[in-house]
Amino acid sequence: MIDLKKILVFLFLSISTMCFMIELDISNQIHHFIDVGNLLIKLSKNDFQVGFLFEDNRSNYAKLGFLKVKSSDSSFRIGGTLGNSWTIFLKMGVNIYGVTPGDYTVNVVLSPDINYMQCQINQKFFLGKNTLSFSDYERIGSVSFGFSRVYLRFQDREFGVYRIDDGIFPGFYPYTVGQTGEEGLFMGIGWMDGLAGFVSFRHRIVLKESSVFLNPFAVVKTDSIYPGIKMELFATDFKANLILTTRKVLMSVSF
Question: pLDDT digit string (tens) for 83-104?
Answer without folding.
Answer: 999 999 999 999 999 889 999 9
